[in-house]
Amino acid sequence: MENSSQPATENWAPLFFTIWTGQAFSLFGSALVQFALVWWLTQKTGSATVLATSTIAALLPQIIAGPFAGALVDRWNRRIIMIGADTSIALATVMLVYLFATNQIQVWHIYALAVIRSLGGAFHQPAMTSSTSLMVPDKHLARVAGANQTLQGLSGVFAPPLGALLLELISTQNVLLIDIGTGALAILPLLFISIPELPRHVLQANGTLKKTSYSHDLREGFAYVVRWKGLFGLMILAMILNFLLIPSSSFLPLVITKIFNGGAAELGWTESLFGAGIIAGGITLSIWGGFKRRIVTSFSGIIGIGLGIVLTGLVPSNMFYLLLAASLLIGFMQVFANGPLMAIMQSSVAPDMQGRVFSLLGAGATAMMPLSLLIAGPISDRLGIRFWYIFGGSICILMTIASTFVPAIMNIENNNKITQAPIVE
Description:
Blueprint: H1 12-45, H2 48-75, H3 78-101, H4 107-135, H5 141-169, H6 172-190, E1 201-203, E2 209-211, H7 214-227, H8 229-250, H9 252-259, H10 264-288, H11 294-314, H12 320-348, H13 354-383, H14 385-403, H15 407-410
Antiparallel strand pairs: 1-2
């Protein structure tokens, strides 16, 4: 298969960014809701188990359903999928508003909403990502990825304090109403702007074309990834790096309290510098676009993240400012690691396979989160909280450098043809 010329037109920007802006409002609204619900659970129960369970409820649906949702994303109209996902989440939030307003809310209701939002995300995220490559010219994909990273950084910096302020001024159900409004802003452009559709047919043994079945599409997606050595290698590398780096953010409160004897203020400053780094990196990538070879930009970003993680583990306890610098560096470099990698996938993977590929990548990366924490936690308790930062960051750097000697990975942008026989029904 080959990523053929994209259907993007010269006037792509107004159409795409109209949809993108609606999605941006929805993302910010979701961040507000996430903060409000976590705070409600914290005040209501004060239980770490409850918070952990809510996190699991938000992760498992994407891990389990993600690979199966991807095949449906490639079969169905992606615009309708996004409308359906956003609408389902909004309706579930409406029900939660009613439960809060009538004082009937229970902890399990929050779990249920987390599951619904996660299932919606399992469909919405690959649909939006794969639609981007159909609407945006290839040369602008890295810049759009930079804009997406900037948006995430802004959401991470401003949503928590704004959420805290709103909870002081208005009730929880009114904060949830904001999310419903921003969800409507995401749906509205999709009602009027079309997204290119791709035919789904397969070559039969007699030489004729036939519409593919779901089982065929599911098998084809796995085969596509496994048989393309560069793509498969890059996805495995991303999963391993996620495994190594995820604990660094989860253990940050312990670093602040145990090593630097800090409190909430120091943690807030560290997270704010991380968000500022993402914003700065996103703006830089949006303007610059990265190196001509996107894989070089991505690997440079990953090495930069590794250096920042190692620095976090080595900073003396009397040099808190170096921890802030490391946090800024990690945020900045995260953009250059993730943005070009997404652009590589969007430009190299065949358009009619992107839903499945992005779903597999997302499910694999998400699955690393609980697995990594289960292993890193006991190791850090035994060997010290600094150990995982130094170990994980160092291995991250070494694996990335080693990957530069793998031709299949380094040449993935110039090797977007799969030399595999099509699956015949």
